[in-house]
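Same chain as my last thread, 273 residues:
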Amino acid sequence: MAKDVVPELMKSIEKAFEIHTANDKRLARVLTRVRDGTATQMDGHTYALCIGRDSSQALQDVLTERNLPDGQLYYNIATRTVVPTLENNQMLINDVAAEIQAALDAQADIGLKTVKPEFPVRRVSDLIDKMTVDGISLADALIWIREPIVNNSEAFYDDFIKENAKFRSKAGMKTTLTRIAEAKCCEWCAALAGTYEYGNAPDDIYRRHEFCRCTVTYQSKKISRNVWSKKQWQSTPEELERRQDTKPIQKSIAERQQILERLTIDREKARRR
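reply #2:
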């Protein structure tokens, strides 16, 4: 019977991950702010990005031709090494995201709990299938352990934002979503950038392509109501002005959606060539 190499591989991956995170200065700065209670949701995304990069590097350090049977990343090995690594990433990211949100809520006198999203089994299963497709070389398999691990880790944070924005909106809080484009982003990401009232955001607001470092955050605040009439307090001048600007905003969103649809069609055409 062939020796089961996975337990030793996992020990090596965990050790390599510990080394990379211990030497990650950017990660350390974020964790300091988390401990101080001064971290922002942008810091939460940075944390997810760092965790993704460090875990990706740990996997690359260990899943080498020398350490793998026949120098191949078999499905069984990928499932028992990559999946637990991503599960650990999600747990760490959710915990830090919840801690950041708790501190922000305390400052705003909000007593709501946070929601931790479920592990995206199908999304990760698709990734495993890609890196273990029949006939794939180890070099090609490792491509799926580089940026895709980082991208999925960012998506874990996006999942947290998505679930908590949804939860707070349903709880009756005024909630907005903001997508911040990274410097020199592509046209597709630029079209998505902006702040939207929950329910009016583009369908693709949480989507990201390879090497996308755009950030999605949300803000929620209490809506003051008259306890006798159950109606909101009279609008402030600023609120009235915002309402007057609703039509131009909606038009802008529609224009952005057209851009996104055009770019998506162009991307699909390019792939078929």
